[in-house]
Design goal:
Layout lengths: L12 H9 L4 H8 L3 H9 L20 H14 L3 H8 L8 H10 L25 E11 L2 E10 L7 E4 L4 H14 L6 E4 L15 H5 L3 H8 L3 E4 L9 H13 L9 H18 L10 H11 L28
Parallel strand pairs: 1-4, 4-5
Antiparallel strand pairs: 1-2, 2-3
Amino acid sequence: MAGLLHGSARTTPRVRAELQASQEATRVLAARHGLNPKTVRKWRKRTTTADQPMGPRRPRSTVLTEAEEAIVVEFRRRTLLPLDDVLGCLRESIPTLTRRALHRCLVRHGISRLPKDDESTSKRGRFAETKIGYVHIDHCELRLAEGKLHMFLASDRVSKFTPVAFFDAATKMNGAAFLREVVAVFPYAIHTVLTDNGMAFADLPKYRDGPTATWRGPIFDRVCREHGIAHRLTKPYHPWTNGQAERMNRTVKDATVTVFHSPDLASLKAHVLAFVSAYNFAKPLKRLQWRTPFQAICDAWAKDPAPFTINPHHLIPGPHTNQRLERPSRM
């Protein structure tokens, strides 16, 4: 099977072979095939019918230097990280690195595809795509020698914006109070909340039926109805259904209590709040195409401001910090 022809080629391999084998005059062959005589002479001098390679003889990047390209290649070979992860790790060391330049570099060196590993591939899929305002809520405990903090956490499925609050216990009243604070903190309307079956968010299964449950219901559901929010519960014993909030809980713990020793609960609380603020406003996330959660919110506001209650640019921390961001730090 013949190879691909150049986009501007006027001849095929068969015509080229005829030109090379013919003993007729150049002008006769040019007139017969509708070619320029220079084209006929060119192919009669060659011994093959294939197009010569175009472009530079030694391919190189127009964006990266040789040293930067060597760094990229060695980093990829040693870490075997996906393309986006390599970009996220090296974008600070190599400011001119773009996703396109990185991909072309890997292709030139023959390492654009990672080896397949079926054992490490997760069988669980991603969350279904939805519009902004789908919030995962969960609760966890941060423990120290002198006691523990009950931390409530909310994370938007689309923007990944994550406010937290501290309470003295994981009670129904505190769960409802946290939901009210979440509604006040987010600059857009929340349409769905996903929680587990914990006591702070739902009644026990045996108490969910009957006239009392129908007319009264847990206070968390009543707050949802007040704000027009649909409350969904995860399937019992399936914590990965609320995996985004569970993963964020682990992220907070890994950045605070796991690696740092806090002398008291007040310092731990301040550390968690500082980390969450940096996460929301300064940490680029791969899932957001290397934007911060705050940048993702601003982009969503620019595309469709209808779901928003305030301009999200008012949330920028600084001298004019919105007071609503400070309320979910109650203990």
